[in-house]
Amino acid sequence: MEKKEQLYEGKAKKVFATTDQNLVIVSYKDDATAFDGLKKGTIVGKGVVNNRMTNMMMQLLEQHGVPTHFVKELSDRDTVVKKVKIVPLEVIIRNVSAGSFAKRYGVEEGIVFDEPTIEFSYKNDDLHDPLINSYHALALHLASKKEIETIKAYAFKVNEVLKEYFLTIGVKLIDFKLEFGRLPDGTIVLADEISPDTCRFWDAKTNEKLDKDRFRRDLGGVEDAYREIFARVTGK
Ligand code: ADP
Ligand code: UDP
């Protein structure tokens, strides 16, 4: 399978058409952005880590009954996925307070919740991805009631599977963002990526950050953190 015309270039990935109209190739870049695109940089090797790690997570989730867009890894940076219409919601699950949750509610980071939380942002760059609730999403016809129920159920299932998996490699899954899409027949599948760009990972013993917060917050050791989490998931 080879790349045809470029359909889209985002902040972290490019999307290419293929000879099959139902499939696209996503190509992972080393470009990094934060704070709504205000901070820009490069994380050397990130594209490889995010591509391969995403594919491993998607396959693990498929094994646990979560349908995903994953089809085939082509190379270090390129993967064939089912082309979907992305549901314009960023679905965020949290197990521990951090980031915008801690800031919004004036609490410290690191509070372990009794139950995971879910929230949605409206995926709209012009509006800067505002927080939205499911009633608003329905009112705006972003998704149907049934789709929102399906998305919520899958998101919590993803959390259960990934939380357990990451503990086996000495990592706490603090929070993460998911995107879902619709196949041509309307089936909802997990899309986009699952990587240190989209998850917070803390070392289980030391709470050391092994994710994009090292870039966002200028903590140093950014590439090392991506290498470390990748080494753990690949067992190398
Ligand atoms: P952004 O658009 O936020 O800059 P990326 O650089 O990651 O993000 O670009 C990848 C784009 O591809 C995103 O807009 C994402 O929603 C979209 N996407 C992810 N998976 C699929 C898929 N299976 N089919 C079509 N589009 C997808
Ligand atoms: N996240 C993401 N893309 C976004 C916003 C958030 O992947 O556009 C992820 C982020 O990496 C973290 C989780 O979602 O794992 C929760 O992020 P939060 O709301 O705390 O936002 P931030 O701290 O990035 O402002």
CATH second-level architecture of the largest domain: 2-Layer Sandwich
Number of strands: 14
Whole-number tally of structural domains: 2
CATH topology of the largest domain: D-amino Acid Aminotransferase, Chain A, domain 1
Rounded to the nearest angstrom, the radius of gyration is 17 Å
What is the CATH superfamily classification of the largest domain?
ATP-grasp fold, B domain
Sum up the overall morphology in one term: globular
**Poorly predicted ranges (pLDDT <50, ≥5 residues)?**
none
In words, what does this structure look like?
This protein is α+β, with helices and mostly antiparallel strands. The protein has 2 domains: 6-82, Phosphorylase Kinase, domain 1 (2-Layer Sandwich), CATH 3.30.200.20; 85-234, D-amino Acid Aminotransferase, Chain A, domain 1 (2-Layer Sandwich). Helices cover 31% and strands 32% of the residues. Strands 8, 9, 10, 11, 12, 13 and 14 form a 7-stranded antiparallel β-sheet that branches. A 5-stranded antiparallel β-sheet has the order 1-2-3-7-6. A hairpin with a 5-residue loop joins strand 2 and strand 3 (23-28). The longest helix has 24 residues, at 145-168. The relative contact order is 0.16. The model has no long low-confidence stretch (mean pLDDT 98). The structure holds adenosine-5'-diphosphate and uridine-5'-diphosphate. Uridine-5'-diphosphate (UDP) binds at residues 90, 92, 98-101, 129, 175-177, 198-200, 212.
